[in-house]
Amino acid sequence: MPEQTVHHPIVAVTADTRSFENYTWHAAPSTYLEAAVAVAGVTPLIVPAFGDRIDFDAVLDRVDGVLATGSRSNVHPALFGAEPTPDHEPYDPQRDATSIPLIEKALQRGVPVLAICRGMQELNVALGGTLATEIQAMAGRNDHRAPVSDRQEERFAIRHDVRIKPGTCLARIMESVAIDVNSLHRQAVDRLAEGLEVEAVAADGTVEAVSVKGAPGFAVGVQWHPEYWAASDGPSGRLFRAFGDAARAHAVRHAPRMAAE
Could you tell me the sign of the dihedral formed by the alpha carbons of 79, 190, 26, 144, in that order? Predict the structure, then answer.
């Protein structure tokens, strides 16, 4: 019998919609794509934000992971039962209509998921949780927004520590219960979805990482931005390599199906 060939892992990447030069673009920041290729060792495939016009099952039949990226836009508050206000803006409803069901179906099918910043917030909303906005104005909370700078290196600088719950998926990945991360958000988890487990918190109690309870595959969300420093920062690289390993394991498990097709 000939040796079975396992295909190189491909991961679906969520897209934002942007208007530029009279076109609507479906795009993802290059930092996520670079981290996927260079550190996770997978091939990223951007999924256009066309909502239910996308056959999510067909996408998930052909990929070995989902990378839900961060974004300047926020999940629309109507999706978690809140009244829209200027504090919740800006929005990207096309992304909401695509990324959230893609995450839901990936979890149902055991496809590995890594959800970053907005992606983690989408994960919480997808499972029934809610979000809080302008958390820097809340009593006892720190300012988690990005530093004001024209230099990305300063905006994405490692700024504060997070405390990892011992025995969690993240603790195993990091081989530590404390790491330092960057911070570029003004929204955060409010009511945690029942299907999620807190994996890490900031000193002020802000939820910094979650995992999906009972998930058949890798399913982790982080509020910080490991993609920016994945090639040079130890914890950031560990997270992307763990995601890549999960995608490769998924590829091996599904190789017989792919061969049959």
Answer: positive
Q: What is the CB neighbour count within 10 angstroms for residue 151?
A: 9
The mean pLDDT values, 10 residues at a time, for the chain of 261 residues are: 65 97 97 98 98 98 98 97 95 98 97 98 98 95 94 96 96 97 96 98 97 94 98 98 97 70 52
> 60: which 2 tokens?
């998930």
pTM: 0.94
d(CA 130, CA 82): 8
Residue 31: other Cβ atoms inside 10 A? 18
Instruction: Confirm whether 83 is a catalytic residue.
Output: no
Token readout for 88 is 């919740």
d(CA 224, CA 30): 17
Find the catalytic residue in 144, 185, 225, 250. Answer: 225
